[in-house]
Amino acid sequence: MTALETATRPRARSGRPTKAAAAERDERLLEIATHMFLEQGFEATSIDALAEAASIGKATLYARYADKGALFADVLRRRIIEVYGGLEAEFAAAPGDDLQATLQHVAERFLDQTLQDSSVALGRILAAQGARFPELAQLAMTEGYERQVRLISSVLARFDGDPRYVLGDLAVTADFFLALVLGRTSRIKIYGLAIDREEMRHRTRAAVAFFVRGVSAA
Question: What pLDDT does 197 receive?
Answer without folding.
Answer: 84
